Amino acid sequence: MSRDPAVAAASFGFVNHRCAKDVKAFQEQKGSSEAVKACFAKETKTLTSTCGKEVHAFAECLADPESGSCSRPEWDLRVCVRSNFGFDSALEQKKQAARLSKSTVPTELADSEKLETAASRWK
Fold it and tell me: Domain of life here (predicted)?
């Protein structure tokens, strides 16, 4: 994961999803913590090289939510990830919409398209 806590938080859900097999193997004592660390580093790099602008915008928002920089970064990051990596299932959208109450996503979007926090987005 990134050394910048805000960037790490912004990319956590994506990285956690992409490294689920390594994490599960480690939890079941069939894998190593080194494999998990390597996967997290690789997937963080993949995300930031593909959606870096969006990750950093969302990281700025997480670091200082009152700064006024939080108009759409969650949505922009989700669109970038969905476009480049194909993440998005109807079931996940329904779960997220059901949990949403304080989104920064524009209200004209359908409930099923709204976002929750980065950490739970791709679980």
Answer: Eukaryota
Q: Look at the block and give the residue holding tokens 């922009």.
A: 76
Residue 21 belongs to domain spanning: 5-88
Enclosing H/E stretch for 55: helix 33-63
Question: In total, how many domains does the chain have?
Answer: 1
Residue at 101 is within a domain: no
The model's pTM? 0.60
In a domain, 100, yes or no: no
Structure tokens that stand for 12 in this block = 């956590």
Q: Tens digit of pLDDT for each residue in 103-112?
A: 444 444 444 4
Rounded CA-CA distance 17/117 in Å is 14
Question: % helix / strand / coil in the chain, to the nearest 5?
Answer: 70, 0, 30
Q: Is 12 contained in some domain?
A: yes
DSSP string, 104-116: -S-TTS-GGG---
| Cα 52 from Cα 99, distance rounded (Å) | 27
* Residue 118 included in any domain: no
